[in-house]
Each structure stands twice: as structure tokens, then as C-alpha cells.
Amino acid sequence: MWEGNSSLLWGLVRGPPPRQDWADGTEDGLYQLGSVLLALGYMGGSGAFGAVYTVSCLLLAFLCQALWGWLSVCAAGVLAWGVLLGALCLLRLGGLLLRLRWDALPGGELGALYRAVFRPLGAPPAAFRRLTQACGGRVWALGEEQDYAQEGTTPIDQLSFLLSGRVRASLDGQFVQYIFPFQFLDSPEWESLRPMEEGKYQVTLTAETDCRYVTWPRRRLQALLAGDRYLAHLFSVLLGSDIADKLYALNQRLFIKHGLILDIRLPGLYFALAPPSPSADPFSAPPPASGIGSSPGDHGDRGDSRSRSSPARTTPPPGGDPPGLALEGFSEVAGGSAPLTGST
């Protein structure tokens, strides 16, 4: 064995021995084509599509090698290796195509939803596909001035995401806020109920333009989120961000008669926004609220104004955004004497 290895090394150093049996011609076209395909196959890029290109070229190269071994050199070993390697490449190619089909995102509006909302959050396509399966992969239409939900009538049995158009939220016929594309239609209602509770919408949602939306049945989505921790965490982030956006949008429309914008987190603002309880004594002072500009001695003479204060809603003008909610005399409410603008 050592003598054979030493003779090989010595032959490499001294050069190949002279040969007299070199073939005069070249191999036929099958061998040349297989070599070219083999070289092209290893020039493929990364990723799933690059792997498909590489495996496809290798499959063709090994088939050419098998045909060359069968038709030209009549060598069983060359034929067997070509068939075996070609079969392995064929299996690998089938697995890659199935993976691409499984990872393929739905086209149209659902694909735009993934690219605009879920992909920036790093959500994999497989997770988004599970969501589309839960909603049936269907996009619903809402005509102009058609109600999506009516206050006090429509049960809260779904969660919807607006894809296009604009929806108006109103309470007692008065404008509250707009819902724009790529926002939930009913995120506050979804978060207000426990999994086994029932409830009805407290606002009316009306399409101002032709709208398109995707909706998940409540029970089916709850079952999906209960069994998938990643989707549950993802929806928690999306719902929390959506509710915060709606609250801050409402905050920009809340002002007093002097034009100062109030913060929705201002202590004492709840008593101006919330309607008085019919069973409560209208002249009794509510529990004291600790806030800016309030003192323990001020609660007694401010309880009456606090219990009777209510926001004066205005009707939206035609062709433009509605004005803000004006709070008349909010300076008399505990916590409202100090002028605050914007968010704290």
C-alpha cells in the first residue's frame, strides 16, 4: 500500500508517464451537455428559488450522464450512478416545490395586508396563512352608507380588519371618529369582553365609502389564539396598538370652549364625559379625584357641576372632518382647572 502511494506521489512530482492510448476524438454531445449543466447548476443563488434552480440543473446533468453511459460507453456503473443521483435530485426538487407552495402567500388584498402589517412585525408567512385559514381566505365588501354594526343591536361575534375605504363610528347619531385602512373595526369591543361573555356594539359603524374588510368569527379566532402562543402575542400587540391609536385620535378632537386640547388621561375628565347615573343624587358629590389644580376643599362645591357636565357634540360638516368635542365649563371640574394641552 505504501509502495502504491509512494509511486503515485512520485508520479505527481515527475509528471505523468508517456501514454500512447489517448483517445483521438472527444466525447459526444450528451457528455458535453451534462458537464455544462453541472457547471451552471453550482452558479445558483441562495434561497428557495436558488435551490430549485441548482437542483433542476443537477437533475438534467445526471440524466445526461446516465444516457451517455448507456448509449455511448455502455458502462453499467456510469448508468447506475446517473440514475441514482438523478432520482435523489428529483426527490429534492419535489420537496422544494411543495415547500414553495406551502409558503406561498395569498395574492390580492390579503397579500397586501401581510406586506403592510404583518411582515414589518417579522411574522412568518406560515403564521399569516393560519390566520387566513381561520377567516376562510375571504374578503368581504361593505357598500357606501351601509352599516357594519348598529349600537345596542349587533352582537359582538367577530373581529374585522379594514383593508380599504373609510368607516365612520357614531354614538347616538353623533360622530365619534373615523376608522381607516389597516385598522381593526372593533378592537375595543373585542378587548371589552372575556372569552365566554356576550355583548353588543355600543357604537354604530357605517361605511362612508365602498369598503373591503376581512373578518374572523369570534369563537374560531379565540380557539386559534388559545392554541397558538405566537399568534396570541401578535394579536395582543396589534390590538393594543390599534386601541391606543384610536384613543389618541379621539384625544386630538377633545377641547374646551377656550380652545385648549385636553388629555383623555386628565383626572376628573371622566365625570364630564360619562353621563350621570339616574339613580344617583344629582346634588351629591362623587368621590374625590386627585389631580392637577384640585384641593380637598374644592370637591364639595364642584360635585354638582361635575355630575351635570357633559360633552357638547357637534354634527360633522358636509365634505370635511367633524370638529372636536367641546366641553363647556370643564374648568369647574376637579382636575380641569389647570390648562393642559396635548398628551402628558
Write the layout of secondary structure elements.
Elements: H1 2-14, H2 29-41, H3 47-71, H4 76-103, H5 108-118, H6 125-134, E1 140-142, E2 147-149, E3 158-164, E4 167-171, E5 174-179, H7 187-192, E6 204-207, E7 211-217, H8 218-227, H9 229-251, E8 254-256, H10 269-273, H11 299-308, E9 325-327
Parallel strand pairs: 8-9
Antiparallel strand pairs: 1-7, 2-6, 3-7, 4-5, 4-6
Helix pairs in contact: 2-3, 3-4, 8-9
Short précis:
It is built from eleven helices and nine strands.
Q: Mean pLDDT, rounded to whole units?
A: 74
The percentage of residues in β strands lies in 5-15%
Sheet of most strands? 4 strands, antiparallel
Q: Please identify the structural class as seen in this structure.
A: alpha+beta
Tell me the strand order in the biggest sheet: 2-6-4-5
What series of H and E elements makes up the topology?
Answer: HHHHHHEEEEEHEEHHEHHE
Count of alpha/pi helices: 11
Q: Indicate the overall shape.
A: rod-shaped
Helix content: 40-55%
The low-confidence parts are: 280-319, 331-344
Radius of gyration: 36 Å
Span between N and C termini? 86 Å
The total of beta strands comes to: 9
Structural overview:
This protein has 344 residues and is α+β, with helices and mostly antiparallel strands. Helices cover 45% and strands 12% of the residues. The chain has eleven helices and nine strands. The strands form three sheets. A four-stranded antiparallel β-sheet has the order 2-6-4-5. It has a three-stranded antiparallel β-sheet with strand order 1-7-3. The chain has a two-stranded parallel sheet with strand order 8-9. A hairpin with a 2-residue loop joins strand 4 and strand 5. Helix 2 runs antiparallel to helix 3, helix 3 packs antiparallel against helix 4 and helix 8 crosses helix 9. The protein is rod-shaped, with a radius of gyration of 36 Å. The C terminus is likely disordered.
